UniProtKB/TrEMBL annotation:
Chain segments annotated as transmembrane: 84-104, 110-128
Name this polypeptide is given: Uncharacterized protein
UniProt keyword annotations, A-Z: Membrane, Transmembrane, Transmembrane helix
Compositional bias annotation for Basic and acidic residues: 56-66
Region (Disordered), start-end ranges: 35-75
Length: 144
């Protein structure tokens, strides 16, 4: 049901056509906006006596005896020799191979096979030595 204040369909079509015509006529032109005047704000700065300018106030004065001195950390634990050799096999042998490739050193076949066996053996040894026990579900690995 049509309301009394609704425009006629012909009037509505003419209004839409007029709006589209305005859009087409103004296409590509940019509207120039006048800059608005910003209100002037007076900044009030407190008056500071000249004697305070030489020595700025120190807020956090800590007595030297009250400073926190952390304890010396424990020495880095050294892995057992078998695990150290296994880690060298996993990381050291690929580094040696990469160095030989970059420099252009050709190694004998038996030495290349020995390095491949060292890499695979070191990786296998580290996998075998891994713990089979599952971690507790609440353990996030943090040590306090």
């Amino acid at each position: 049901m049509a309301r009394d204040d609704d425009p006629e369909p012909a009037d509505l079509a003419r209004e839409r056509e007029r709006e589209w015509q305005q859009i087409v006529e103004n296409f590509g032109e940019r509207v120039v906006l006048e800059p608005e005047e910003e209100p002037q704000v007076d900044v009030v700065r407190p008056q500071v006596p000249d004697e305070d300018l030489d020595d700025p106030p120190v807020r956090d004065q800590i007595h030297p005896d009250d400073e926190f001195v952390p304890p010396t950390p424990p020495p880095i634990p050294r892995p057992p020799i078998d695990r150290l050799l296994a880690w060298f096999g996993v990381f050291g042998i690929p580094a040696v191979v990469l160095f030989c490739i970059v420099v252009g050193i050709s190694v004998p076949t038996w030495f290349g096979l020995l390095m491949a066996a060292g890499f695979i053996g070191g990786f296998g040894y580290l996998v075998v030595k891994m713990s089979d026990e599952p971690r507790p579900p609440w353990d996030d690995g943090a040590v306090l």
